[in-house]
Structures are given as C-alpha cells and as structure tokens.
Design a protein that fits this description.
Layout (H helix, E strand, L loop, with lengths): L1 H5 L10 H21 L6 E4 L2 H15 L5 E5 L4 H12 L3 E5 L9 H7 L4 E5 L13 H10 L3 E5 L18 E5 L10 E5 L14 H4 L7 H39 L3 E3 L10 E6 L4 H10 L9 H4 L6 H7 L2 H4 L2 E5 L6 H19 L1
Parallel strand pairs: 2-3, 2-4, 4-5, 5-6
Antiparallel strand pairs: 1-7, 6-7, 8-9, 9-10
Helix pairs in contact: 2-8, 3-4, 8-13, 9-13
The chain binds pyridoxal-5'-phosphate (PLP).
Pyridoxal-5'-phosphate binds next to helix 3 and helix 10.
Length: about 350
C-alpha cells in the first residue's frame, strides 16, 4: 500500500498516464475481491467500510421498491444493520426483527411466515460477529427468491474464514470488509449482483461505475485487493490451523473453569471465534483483567462495547441479561501461536479465580 500514499500520486480518473496506471491497479483489486466471493469484478463496489455497504444495500433495496414498506432482519445483526433499520422505522417502515434460538440461529419457518406481499428486503448476516455462528444462508437466499424478495447478506465475518461463493448462495447484495481479513481499516465493499436494483448512496462522479461517487482511496483499495487474494489462496490452510488452536483454547477454558459455558452452536461456527460465558463474572471485569495481562478479548462487538451494554447477541440467544453480561469473545487468527493460546487460557483461569473471590 505504501507507494500509493508516498510516491504514486495521481487521480485514477485523470487522463494522464499514471492516472490510467492507478485505474488498472484498482481494476485488479476488483478482480481479487470478486474472486474471493465468486462474483464478477464489475459487481464489486468499494466503499469506506462495511457499515456503509450495509446502509447502501438496504437503502437501495428500499428505494427500488417504494411501494413495499416492510423489512426483515434479526435481533443479532451488527449495529450498522440494526440502527439503519431503526432509522427506517422512524421513516414509517415496518421492521420485523427475527429472534434466534439458544444456538444463535433464526427459524426458517418463521422467516417464511413473516415474508409478506409488502416485504422489500430480508437482511441477515452470514456469520455472527460475536459468536461466530454460521447461518443457513443458502436456504435463506432460496426462500427469499422463491417469494420474490431481495436478500442482503452481511458476510463481513464469513469472508476469509469460510468459503463464500455467491454462485451457491445467490444473495442480491453482499457486504465485505477488508480489516476482517487482514486488510486495512476504513475500506469495505458491497457486491451488487448483476440484476439487483441499486441507487448510489454517495451520489457524485462516475467512480465505481457510478455506484459510489468520490475519488477512490487508492492505497486502501490496493491493500484490500492484496488481502483478498491472500485470503483466497490460504483459506483452507488458515482455517485448519486456527480451528485447532481455537478448539484447544476453548477446551482448556471450559474444562478448567467451573461455571463456564459456550455461547452458540458448537458445530456451525467459523473456526476463529469462541464466545464463552463465566457464571458470576461481569464480562467488563474479565476484559479489563485480561487486558492488563496482555490478552485482548471483547465483551461484545467493538461497535457496541463502548456502551457498556450487555451483549445483544447473547441476550437474544438466552433471554438472560445476566448471561449477556458474562459473555467474552475470543478471536484468533492464523498468526496466533500455540504459546499465546496456552498463555491466554492460563490468564483466563487466573482471572476467573480472582474475580470470583
Ligand atoms: N458487520 C459485521 C458483522 C461486523 O463484524 C462489522 C465490524 O465489526 C461490521 C459490519 C462493520 O464493519 P466496519 O467497521 O468496516 O464498518
């Protein structure tokens, strides 16, 4: 990325030679991100973040179907979807927030039942960011299309962790973020399938084929492309390695700490996440303790945890504010080592002992 911030100036839209060179690099990034999700390069639109992609997708679907005033989402979505839907409610839309069971999964029969003639869009995530639980998105896409409803899928936590192929899961809109697959922060993408209606949220110039105005953030786009390419090439290997470490960490903690429990379905999960609740321990106290020990974990999503509120995801799964206040999310990467995992497990056991006395 560095040359694009330091020496390779120029505007990709300009006619001079190095403008065209930058444009070619951006095209290559489109190809890399498209390959990661089984899409065509011209279906990818770079945005400033996944939150923007989520807003743009839902907004476009509603704008395209002005007579349809109903949206379906779930109680465990990211705040970029939940708060956009709440804003839509204030503008007169009706929003159904599907609940989830103790495994963190929505009921497909319930989804089928709540889709009505005036439903414009279903927006459901592929993988939950707090628990790592994987939704049956293939069935959800089929159900939506069978009923003529658009389907937006927030795949931020799925891409780079498990195979994401839009040829198998035909979502109309797919949200992706670079920094969840080891790319830079501040850059996301929205995949708009050919044929899906779209009106730009950022109205401006012709950039991104007129679907997102504004001069491209070339350095970040290049970084996203390289990260996407690396994720595509290394997905299987990274997943196997991280799953082994995650399972070890989880086993060590659950076996050693009485009153600890897994939140979410054990089998239907991405390999890098585990969400564990500790009876009698406030998650904020555990996060602070572990932080002091050099172990970085979280008690909810980064976008929510500043608010010191109980995890809305674990609350929806358990209906227990107490359990929602005890949830800790451990996220690993292929760069995490076995030594670090052993250390994290030890510190967590120490934390549980100290915080319960
Ligand atoms: N959707 C999910 C599932 C996420 O986990 C996140 C980030 O944590 C986002 C959306 C928002 O991503 P960004 O911070 O790039 O807007």
């Amino acid at each position: 990325m560095q040359p694009f911030f330091v020496t390779r100036w120029g505007n990709p839209s300009s006619a001079y030679r190095f403008g065209a060179q930058l444009k070619a690099e951006i095209d290559r990034a489109h190809e890399a991100v498209a390959a990661l999700v089984g899409a065509e390069p011209d279906e990818i639109v770079f945005t400033s973040c996944a939150s923007e992609s989520n807003n743009a997708a839902i907004g476009a679907a509603l704008a395209a179907r002005p007579n349809k005033r109903h949206v379906i989402t779930s109680a465990v979505e990211h705040s970029a979807v939940l708060n956009f839907c709440k804003a839509a409610e204030r503008r007169g839309y009706k929003v159904t927030y599907l609940g989830v069971n103790a495994d963190g999964l929505c009921d497909l029969a319930e989804l089928a039942a709540v889709i009505k003639d005036d439903t414009a869009l279903v927006s459901l995530m592929w993988v939950n960011n707090e628990t790592g639980v994987v939704s049956p998105v293939k069935e959800i896409a089929a159900l939506c299309h069978g009923k003529g409803v658009l389907f937006h899928c927030d795949a931020v936590q799925a891409t780079g962790k498990i195979p994401v192929d839009l040829n198998l899961v035909p979502a109309d809109y797919l949200t992706i973020s670079a920094h969840k697959l080891y790319g830079p922060k501040g850059i996301g993408a929205l995949c708009i399938r050919n044929g899906a209606p779209f009106e730009p949220m950022v109205i401006g110039g012709h950039q991104e084929a007129g679907r997102r105005g504004g001069t491209e953030n070339v350095g970040l786009i290049i970084g996203f492309g390289v990260a996407a390419d690396s994720a595509t090439r290394n997905l299987t290997e990274r997943a196997a390695q991280v799953r082994m470490l995650r399972d070890k960490l989880e086993f060590d903690i659950l076996a050693a700490i009485p009153g600890s429990r897994l939140n979410g379905n054990q089998a239907l999960r991405v390999p890098n996440t585990t969400n564990i609740g500790f009876d009698g321990i406030d998650s904020d106290a555990m996060v602070a303790f572990l932080d002091g020990q050099g172990v970085c974990v979280s008690s909810g999503s980064a976008c929510m945890s500043n608010a010191l509120t109980p995890s809305h995801v674990v609350l929806a799964m358990t209906q227990s504010v107490e359990k929602a206040k005890q949830a800790i999310r451990f996220s690993l990467s292929h760069l995490t080592t076995a030594k670090e995992i052993a250390e994290a497990a030890e510190r967590t056991k120490q934390g549980a002992r100290l915080l319960r006395t």
